[in-house]
Amino acid sequence: MSVRALIPPAALGLLLLSALVWHLGTGAHSVPPGAVVTALLGGGDSYDAAVIAEIRLPRALGAMLAGAALSAAGALMQGATRNPLAEPGLFGLLAGAALAVVAGQSVFGLTAPPLLPVLAAVGALAGALMVWGVTAAAGGGTGMLTPVLAGAAVTAFLAALTTLLNLIDERSFEDLRVWLSGSLAGLRLPVVTLVAPWALAGLAAALVLAPKLTVLSLGDEAAHALGVAVGRIRALTLIAVVVLTASAVALAGPLAFVGLTVPHAARLIFGTGYARLVPASIALGAVYLLAADTAGRTVIAPAEVSTGILTALVGAPVFVLLLRVRA
Amino acid sequence: MAEAAQVTPGRIAVRGLSVRRGEVRALREVDLDVAPGAMTALVGRNGCGKSTLLKTIARILRPDAGRVEIGGASLDDLSPRAAAQRMALLPQSPILPEGMRVRDLVAQGRHPHRGLVRHWSPEDDAIIARAMEATDVAQFAGRPLESLSGGQRQRCWIAMTLAQETPILLLDEPTTYLDLSVQLEIMGLLARLAREGRTILVVLHELNLAAAFADRIVMMREGRIDAAGTPEEVMTAPVLARVFGLDARVIADPETGRPVCLPRTAA
Questions:
Q1: Which parts of chain A fold into alpha helices (H)?
Q2: Of the candidates A295, A321, A323, A319, which has an alpha carbon nearest to the alpha carbon of residue A308?
Q3: Does residue B120 surpass a pLDDT of 90?
Q4: Would you say residue B250 lies in a domain?
Q5: Residue B219 forms part of a structural domain
Q6: Which of A284, A297, A295 is nearest to A258 (CA)?
Q7: Would you put residue A81 in left (φ > 0), alpha (ψ -120 to 50) or beta?
Q8: So what's the pLDDT on residue A327?
Q9: Which residues of A touch B (CB under 8 A)?
């Protein structure tokens, strides 16, 4: 491997580290970057260290995992569907996961933390299958806007059900209201350690699937002739996407447009090959959510803007731009 | 030699192959032996089954009956990867991923030779470089595909199939939508690859192109093989009338001696 090939991963690593230190230092009690590093290494002021280790580090880890997971999921979906607009939010997975979590907790009393990613996964899969079903029923296999329209319809339907459940059970609505807007506030280490294996398994699967997706981008026939079991790779990709989406939702609620914004930004820098695009999206996704979460805690401090609101504010113009360029 | 029954890796044998596409019987008990190390052209009218036959050999379509053997092994016994190490395909309209560079496309040909463990090697780089040399696209290596002309792009796709290093190369109408001079250039390239020992099976729309370049021509009609042989053997007025419904004369090219089909156009 040449030295030049090491520059992009080194730059991404540095970027990630800076975003992490910035995130950990920001808040009601601000900690300068040097002290953050000292605290991370186990030294320095004990109050700084306590704030960082107990309150901010779980939140930062959650932001990194959720951002990486949603970005990887978006890149995988764009590769498997050959649709540049594919991402967990637009294709109904986030709405499905959110409804499943709300229904599971308020209707069926499934509030045990280990069930959270399971509920989210069931919901994400159901949402994806509904969008796929509506797209197939519309007979529009090739148009890239048909699944987006199906996703909008399915999302509206599922979100209505979520709102209905919240109106019936107002007590849990208070707890879930912030979570439903996509927020990392109050994230504690037990939840992070619970979800991390899911997220890491999904990310590992994404890295393994990535080179197959490049082959798939040449069309099903060409991919088949290059030895890719097209159907099996699509099924495995769906499973990975569901697991990734579920772990992000379990950590931070439904975060809109992350799976669209980050892979397309990564494409501008790293090109179209998925073997590079997927790892780059994972790293950039972690950076993106760290930055969004830090900004969300800064702009109207001491109050917070939910991370999901910021990702939507950034992501919607990206979506419009993509429509202009690609559709 | 003791191994009289030794199998050639480039041999394709089709036995009793039947394929339905919806309600249509696209292939009806087709038997075919494709000559190894030569170019065979599959021709016929639209819907005669020539593309279906190619796609079934390429394992994109599954037969309802019969079997295909390549290099003596039944396709049913080969994994997708093992099949892709023996046979490459250039589909009729492959997708051109936006922004992909020529070299990255050609590199995809190495995919069936890579595993989870076995990664990139200098040998792969050498094979990719050779494939680009052979198709004369090395000078475009760093350029995005969409910046090239149709013929240049087609040569890049052929380079990708060459990087697959298979004894068999299947092509589905590789000259469609190209200018005549570019069609000749692509066919000349395929003829050279066949002379170098590859088995080439190519679906063609243009009869005279098949007659000018192919070693053998297989003519299909209504899901069956109607005639097969050298261009001289099958390019005859009665066969053309039967297979294509064409009222044509056949003359010999004064320079190459190859048959040329001249449809009667006088009112």
A1: 3-25, 33-40, 46-50, 57-81, 93-106, 115-137, 146-168, 170-180, 189-216, 220-225, 230-252, 258-270, 274-298, 307-326
A2: A295
A3: no
A4: yes
A5: yes
A6: A284
A7: alpha
A8: 58
A9: 82, 208, 211, 214-215, 217-222, 224-229, 267, 271-273
Query: What is the rounded distance in angstroms from the CA atom of residue A119 to the CA atom of residue A138?
Result: 29
pTM of the model: 0.89
Contact B185, B153 (CB under 8 A): no
Residue B129 domain-assigned (yes or no): no
- What is the DSSP secondary structure assignment for residue B171, as one 8-state letter? E
DSSP B144: B
Query: What tens digit of pLDDT does each residue of B34-55 get?
Result: 999 999 999 999 989 999 999 9
Percent of chain A with pLDDT over 70: 97
The answer to whether the CB atoms of A272 and B98 lie below 8 A apart is: yes
Report the mean per-residue pLDDT for chain B. Answer: 91
- Structure-token match 């007590």, residue found: A171
Question: What total number of domains does chain B contain?
Answer: 1
Residues 6+ apart with CB under 8 A from A12: A280, A283, A284, A287
| Sole residue written with tokens 């004064």 | B254
- In contact, A71 and A207? CB cutoff 8 Å: no
pLDDT given at position B7: 65
B143 has pLDDT over 50: yes
Measured distance CA(B232)–CA(A272) in Å, rounded: 48
pLDDT of residue B117: 60
Chain A CB contacts of B104 below 8 Å:
214, 271-273
Q: Is position B216 within any domain? A: yes
- Confidence (pLDDT) at B183: 93
| The predicted structure's pLDDT at residue B118 | 60
Hey, is the C-beta of B258 within 8 angstroms of any chain A C-beta?
A: no
CA dihedral for A294, A295, A298, A304, sign (positive or negative): negative
| Number of structural domains chain A divides into | 1
Measure CB to CB from residue A218 to each of B60, B82, B97 and give the nearest one: B97
- Report B:75-104 residues touching A (Cβ under 8 A): 79-85, 87-91, 93-95, 97-101, 104
Q: Nearest residue on chain B to A326, judged by CA atoms? A: B98
Are B162 and B193 spatial neighbours (Cβ–Cβ below 8 Å)?
yes
Q: Where are the alpha helices (DSSP H) in A138-216?
A: 146-168, 170-180, 189-216
Query: Does position B12 have pLDDT exceeding 60, yes or no?
Result: yes
Residue of A nearest to B161 (CA): A226
The CATH number of the domain holding residue A61 is: 1.10.3470.10
pLDDT in tens, B152-176: 999 999 999 999 999 999 999 999 8
CATH number at residue B181: 3.40.50.300
pLDDT digits (tens, 9 = 90+) for B48-74: 999 999 999 999 999 999 999 998 899
What's the rounded Cα separation, in Å, for the pair A271 and A259? 17
Q: Residue A224's closest chain B neighbor by CA?
A: B60
Domain holding B251, by residue range, is 12-93+167-263
Contact list in A for residue B101 (CB cut-off 8 A) is 271
Full domain range(s) for residue A167: 3-326
Q: ipTM value of the model?
A: 0.89
